[in-house]
Specification:
CATH topology: DNA Binding (I), subunit A
Strand order of the largest sheet: 1-2
CATH class: Mainly Alpha
Order of helices and strands: HEEHH
Number of helices: 3
Distance between the termini: 38 Å
Number of strands: 2
Largest sheet: 2 strands, antiparallel
Structural class: alpha+beta
Strand content: 5-15%
Radius of gyration: 13 Å
Number of domains: 1
Helix content: 25-40%
Length: about 90
């Protein structure tokens, strides 16, 4: 996915998700500068079905996740990880 399409996808998902992380539902910061995108709450494009598992670059396969959730998910299925983060938030 080229830079312009990634930027557009991030804007659309940020608006659709009301600025909240897909997994932990915490507010995210949206920046397109690499230098500004270092915080844990930085909005990152997340492949729901990982590329390693055959997921593609179609918009329907993306969600916006904070950098912390994106980095912590690893190889866990997105549904299982979302449930785990939702349960953690309730406690």
């Amino acid at each position: 996915m080229d830079k312009r399409r990634r930027r557009r996808a991030r804007w659309l998902l940020f608006w659709k998700q009301e600025g909240l992380c897909f997994y932990c539902q915490q507010p995210m910061s949206l920046s397109f500068s690499h230098k500004d995108n270092i915080w844990g709450n930085a909005a990152t494009l997340e492949h729901l079905l990982r590329r390693a598992d055959g997921g593609g670059n179609k918009i329907r396969n993306f969600a916006l996740a904070c950098r912390d959730c994106n980095n912590r998910r690893g190889a866990v299925d997105w549904r299982a990880y979302k449930a785990l983060r939702s349960n953690h938030r309730m406690m």
